């Protein structure tokens, strides 16, 4: 007799283990970018992050933009045009499959356009790798620089008039390759996390030297997120045109030149913006206790420095050395000089527009003009800055006898709309209208007023050139009201890095307004700074689109056996494919990225899958695509726009394709050695029988002893024998 036992749900409950969904912590927008932070879940090995507008479909961001901070994950979408966006975070499990059931979408966030105003944009120019609306210029090469790959990042750079390419390894060598003047692709370097001195520098600096050639449409070095930091080295620019530096913190610079960022001779159309400038190492001179120049410019034309944050810098902005003239132009706008000491800026010879800056408790002086310069100081906010505006060798500069900042001849200043707040008993500013000899500036009644030619400096008899009222010499702009500047620059879309960076300091105005010594507590915070970044969730992708690791040398103990489809097998040799069945767009090849062994043949030349690479072909029936990458890698690729990943530990991707046109493109940086297409006609009856347990090869033949590393089918599913 059989007894049946029924468990009533109302009487007993069985716990069901549920999987956690991604939890959003924070989301926000910034200048042409947006960010999201989220709580990692156990089910995820990595994450795919997508963004979209209300009207568009989701687009995936590069895996390198999705980072691990241990207690949270963070992703940043970059190169966004102004608008409203949202994110979707999709966990990816250890097999490479996206877990959409555990995904989460964010609320919307607002992205604003960068303020592309000033002389760097004169004559219709847009410096760097982005267009005027924030999109990447065509054919831009995007590289991701991390502490891990700083000495191995590589790119094949065009190095001859015949188009021959040379693999350059390390950031400085890549830039040296661009100096040859044959590379026409824009270059975008994205800085991730804290990066200490690379092995190869030029006297402690990374140097952008384009050799006075203009073949390249632009180079941008930009930080990712709010914590991109270069630690111990500086950036030097010379002989270059169309360069952008943005969203980077610079700390502890100890290069021979000493400047955090320095523009040397023969530059044009340079834009440095939204950077945080901290202490460098002390120099040998008495006035270099906080480092040398924070952001200096010499013998360069059509420059904009904007939305930067200077943290107690000693010498902020030296402009000019010798040999410049008033036909050279520069703009300083929306910079926050936060308790910095001097040179805001200190100008020789240039025509210089200084507007909408915040001089916040500057202990020595604000703006200083010398040597025939013409300077328009407009709508700035000076808070407790005792000597806000000075002309060399007259007025406030010599009130105590010797010159405060220079013994050079004077430059002429036109001032309009400035606010002098929280004036101490030591404050001094004298207008020409109050004293036509010992004055600090000619105070205009309106922006458009011209300074009379009869107004001259006491030393050098310099008159103002009225560049700012000459339509052929000034750009279109709309200044903010001076009283709004502190709020704007401290706001969400303000000065410095995204979210004002991860290293911030709050000054004590009662002490720091008048003290220009090194702030020992701030110095300790700067020298002791360590990033909280753990790494990328997908570490294999950190080499970026221009380089990659070749993987382990040598082959598998049991290399795969692939049965070639009739006329469809393809490998690479002599920088070209072996089979014209496939079409290749933007194809770059390498023989230094490892190897792959197929059917006893070892291939050492590969196709580098870069952002612009496209492999096209058309099938007339359903076929199985086999792609083999460098041994030791676990690759992925986009097949008809869908990311397909290899099984963990395998360098082989197989995928069934319907009849029709197909396109293979980059997902992450990978190196492809072999392509094959095979008919699926022998597989149909296998797929129909999902339960017989028999193992088949890709041609539908039963296999008794599967070999490690080969692809088989069992119960209707493909697997790789481990």
Automatic annotation (TrEMBL):
Its main location: secreted. Keywords: Carbohydrate metabolism, Lyase, Polysaccharide degradation, Secreted. GO terms for biological process: polysaccharide catabolic process. It is found in: Secreted. Pfam families: CBM77 (PF18283), Pectate_lyase_4 (PF00544). Transmembrane segments: none annotated. Residues 539-560 are annotated as: Disordered. The keyword Glycoprotein does not apply. Residues 183-388 form the Pectate lyase domain. It comes from the Bacteria. GO terms for molecular function: pectate lyase activity. GO terms for cellular component: extracellular region. InterPro entries: CBM77, Pec_lyase, Pectin_lyas_fold, Pectin_lyase_fold/virulence, PEL. Gene3D superfamilies: Single-stranded right-handed beta-helix, Pectin lyase-like. Belongs to the polysaccharide lyase 1 family. This is Right-handed parallel beta-helix repeat-containing protein.
